Amino acid sequence: MEKFKAEIQSRNKRVVLAASIIFFVYIYLSRKTGVPDAMNDLVAGYNLGLLIALQVGAIYFITKYNKALKSNDQLKKLYIELHDERKKLIQYKSSVIGMSIFIFILLLATIISGFYNLIVFYTLLGVCLMILITLVFVKLYFLKKI
């Protein structure tokens, strides 16, 4: 259980670091670009909303991990929650099916956008290519790892 406790402490530090980096990058870019002038209100609102959602998520996980680190019972519950094989299998299966549906819809949208707007077509095509490249590299990585 000590190994798991060290893993949770490390994970907690990474969450704090990631949340801090995201916050400071947002502040830096907001000040550098002058949010209201450089972006329209929709983009500025989206960015702020996403920042708030990420920070709330980080606070949730930090609180959850700190609570588990204070009590052995909570630590055991967290261990069971994170290592539940049934839950992992459900998450894996739903991710694979969800990603397949997403890629199909994205490819369909790419084809349809080609009839209306060339910029949107090239943007979606670039996204499709990046997803394809990412999937190939991830597959190659796991073929060598496993």
From TrEMBL:
Locate the transmembrane regions by residue number.
Answer: 12-30, 42-62, 96-116, 122-142
Alphabetized, the UniProt keywords read: Membrane, Transmembrane, Transmembrane helix
Q: Which domain of life is it from?
A: Bacteria
Protein name as annotated: DUF2207 domain-containing protein
What species was this sequence derived from?
A: Jeotgalibaca arthritidis
